Amino acid sequence: MINISSQASSVSTAYTLKSYSSTATSDAQGGSANSALSTLQDKALSGIAREIPGMDVSDIKKLDANDYSPDKIASRISKFVAVGLENARARGKSEEEVQALYDSAMKGVEQGFKEAKDILSNLKMLNGDIAAQVGETEKQTFAALADLDPSKVSQQSPTLTESVTGASMAERYQRAEDFSLELKTREGDTVKVSFSRNLDIQNTVAAAADSEGNQAMTLDLSRSESSGYQFSVEGDLNADELGAIQNLVRDVGQVASNFYGGDVQKAFEQVSDVSFDSSQLSSMNLRMSRSEQYSAAQRYQQTQQMDSPEQTQGARRLANLGRDMSDSFSNPALDFLDQARESAAQIMRNLAQQDSTFKDASSDQQSLFQERLDRFLGAFAQTE
């Protein structure tokens, strides 16, 4: 018996573009206050990232010593949480879900501070001026985070109306292919061949803007692919049987090529032409399956939010996001993102044109899809 099989291989890629990049820190070294505060910030941000899906601190940039002060760290952490909450709103999350994310973020910060203080305490650093700065950082951070509490914001007396528009779109394409061929020879030998392949592509884009021109955008792309192959022989094949099997497999391969290429009718027409040498082979069992699924969802929402002078939630948080985006996109390599709204529209159009469903559609269907996509993007553009 011969048995050959390949392990299912998988390839996955993911791309994430976010509207805010937080700051990285170094480990606590020596007895300096800056290293102590950097450890405090690092643990707090990591705690938040654990609690809010989609938040990433892996691309954090290094800071100089002047950037580690209680007020700057408090501002940095609160902005990081604000980004997570606004991203959730842009994706259509309810206020109850946003509140749950906020509560989780608070737990993450508390846990992060606890871990950092444990480290500093073990290093005999949590005393004197360092202890005072750590305490002040913790105090200012929780004060800044309290201003973001969705439940408190909603209870304040409204004196200012702010228009906030959010739009999001998600697409997913899945394809599964399975192939199996079983042959039996006149002498009772059995040959089995099987193959499978799966593809999953997802992308999500979300954006939010207010009437003052502040805006934020996120884009997530992911692709995963897996395949497996198996070949087995039970018995002892002679030269004539091998020749008959090779001819049949060659013809079956052409049928499979058309079937998995989408031309099912031609594949069925070719089945009758498959070379089956009945003098060597007694039976053949061929199974092929192919499934494709494409789904798309979009959401557009425009709300009038009532804010108090002390807490203009939409304008203030989106203004922070706008400034953070401007800083993030100052890198010359990201010049193409100078205008987030235009970039988002272009990315969405490129994704649509590269999708196999779009490519295989008729010209009328392509025009209809383009029209719907333009309406979706145009609705967001009207917030300028």
From TrEMBL:
InterPro entries xrefs: DUF5610
Residue stretches making up the DUF5610 domain: 35-148
Gene3D superfamilies per record: 1.10.132.90
Region described as Disordered: spans on this chain: 293-313
Protein name: DUF5610 domain-containing protein
Organism from which the protein derives: Thiorhodococcus drewsii AZ1
